[in-house]
Amino acid sequence: MARRWVDEAGSKTAEQLADAKDTLNLAVNAFEKSKVVALTGLENVTIASTATDSSNRITLENGETLVLTSSDITNAVATVTEDPNGTVKVTGVGAGGPITIVVQVKKDGQIIKSGTFTVNVTSTPTSITSKSITNLDFSTVQATQAKLVSKPVTLGDFTGNRKDFTIVVGGERIPISIYWPLSTDFSKGAAMGSVVDSHIQDYFYQKYGNNGFSIRTVGAFGFDDTFQINTFQTGSASSFTLEGKDWSYFFEQSSAQGTDIDTSKNRTFTISDGTATATIQLTSKFETIDALINHINNRLTNAGVKANVEKVGTSQFKISPTATGSIVLGGANKNDFFN
After folding, report:
1. Alpha helices in 174-284 (DSSP H)
2. CB 316 within 8 A of CB 133
3. Are 40 and 114 in contact (CB under 8 A)?
4. Which residues pair with 231 in a beta bridge?
5. Where are the beta strands (DSSP E) in 123-200?
6. Model pTM score
7. pLDDT tens digits, 135-183
8. What is the rounded CA–CA span in Å between residue 56 and residue 43?
């Protein structure tokens, strides 16, 4: 009898232990399900009002949903939505912050992941509009040689009708004469230009030897029915004159002077976003204001300036920042383009 009682008691104890084990397993499973994993990789956001940001993205598994909660309960600073699935879209409303966004992932009604990030909204960046640009010619005029172009050469044979004149250049006096028929293999202008250039080469060779060919300062050539004499040097320091009894037979005037490079139309200004600066150098003629805008945008891109230029009307352009911050203008000719 006593043995039977002991066996029954042992059986009940085993059942109780099994029940306790099942209860413990259920509790462990419930605890595991209730554990909340931290969402990593969420980034704080700073945007301008009316701008949007979708940099925070969460990968959702089957059965998982996203819950977003903002500390900005009136949406005065920013709105936060899921658009598209798993992407947190922040839209700036008004300057302010920081506000806190709580991001939760739920499955089967329980929160399994959670994280936060902050949002700051700055004032809408101010654009700068140019003055009306009516002249698009900013070209550089290159320095020129001293040059004289002849009258049309009408005579092909100077036999018995000799012509003489002298080229005076840099202390050199170069005699030119023609008293024979011009070559008929070329036009009269080309043939006469060859005659004059041959005299010049011979003068420098006779005076300086072989070095004369490399140090001569003037030359001549022709085309069609005219020929020209020109210095090799450019700029206002280059000049020559013609003397002798027959210079006026060939030319309207007796002196020539080169011109210096002219950069008076060039313009320069700078555009800065506070970190990077682009120098806008305008040294050519633009056919349209669109071409000018493309040129400026290329310079901004190359310099890493966070700004963009777009056309306004037919003769103006607008510079707008593409990130938070402001545009700063500078440079020698800023006032030619902006108020």
Report:
1. 188-208, 212-215, 247-250
2. yes
3. no
4. 218
5. 128-129, 145-149, 163-169, 172-178
6. 0.59
7. 999 999 999 999 999 999 999 999 999 999 999 999 999 999 999 999 9
8. 6
